[in-house]
Amino acid sequence: MRNWKQEPGNSILKKYIDCYWFIEKSSEDVSLNFPKLNPDPAAHFILAPADQTFHYQYQDENISGIGCHLILPNVSTLTLNHSKPFIIIGIKFKVGALYALKGFEELPLINHILTELDGLPLHWFTDNSTLFESASEQIEVTCQKLDDLLINWIEQSHNDKHSQLVHKALPLFKHTELAKMGESLHCAQRTLERSFKRVTGLSLKQYSGMVNFEELLDYLHLQTNTSINWVEIAAQFGFSDQPHLIRQLKNTIGHTPGNYIKQRDLTIDVYGNFD
């Protein structure tokens, strides 16, 4: 299994793109065939060869297609079908970035996988087979190609008053109470709520919960001992009690805490932390 993660090299791209990432599974690699993608408030542009198939299960919906596609922010886990060899280059956008980018004006913001993206640069990638041929070993070259392919599109972005407000709000979540965020930004709380929902598709409470849950999963990923004190973890990550934590895990990733520690079937456990 080969994988890597790198930031864009261009300063303009860094405003909208968190990182590029790469995963390749060969026929000799042994890993889980159906890993789960944990909830994520960021969108991922999935680049793949034009003839490579993909399969996802989201709740009761099965989604299949070929080649490149876009995974919008998802509030529940996606089950992936990685039973066959594949090669993927991912572009992880920053939270709320799609709102500012050309081509997304009429698209949904969350809980969808888009396979037909009119006006977006899919053909740049499917027509460039060398992008995938060199990706596993020539990391810097691949990232430079991605920078070059994306910059003209990203430069057409527009940042209105809503995206500007959300950009200022995002760093506050770790140290500011939700009810006081509007005050910290010198605007009405209702104004902030409306702008945040418009730009990200999520409420302030939803986003805060997803960030906290992601930190919990990162923490669990690092634990090697199956004898975990769930009462302490519940308190550490802001859950009212252990049953609340159990319900949250069950509703979001489909596992009780004990079953998750045994299964280890999230992508973070299978491929490492790609944020």
Secondary structure layout:
Layout: E1 2-6, H1 11-14, E2 17-25, E3 36-37, E4 44-47, E5 53-58, E6 61-66, E7 69-71, E8 78-80, E9 86-93, E10 113-114, H2 122-126, H3 130-133, H4 139-154, H5 161-169, H6 181-184, H7 189-200, H8 204-221, H9 230-236, H10 242-253, H11 257-263, H12 267-271
Antiparallel strand pairs: 1-2, 2-9, 3-8, 4-7, 4-9, 5-6, 5-8, 7-10
Helix pairs in contact: 5-7
How would you characterize the overall build of this protein?
The chain has 275 residues and is of the alpha+beta class. The protein folds into three domains: 2-154, Jelly Rolls, CATH 2.60.120.10; 161-204; 222-271, Arc Repressor Mutant, subunit A. It contains twelve helices and ten strands. The protein has helices at 11-14, 122-126, 130-133, 139-154, 161-169, 181-184, 189-200, 204-221, 230-236, 242-253, 257-263, 267-271, and strands spanning 2-6, 17-25, 36-37, 44-47, 53-58, 61-66, 69-71, 78-80, 86-93, 113-114. Helix 5 (161-169) crosses helix 7 (189-200). The two termini are 18 Å apart. 27% of the residues are buried.
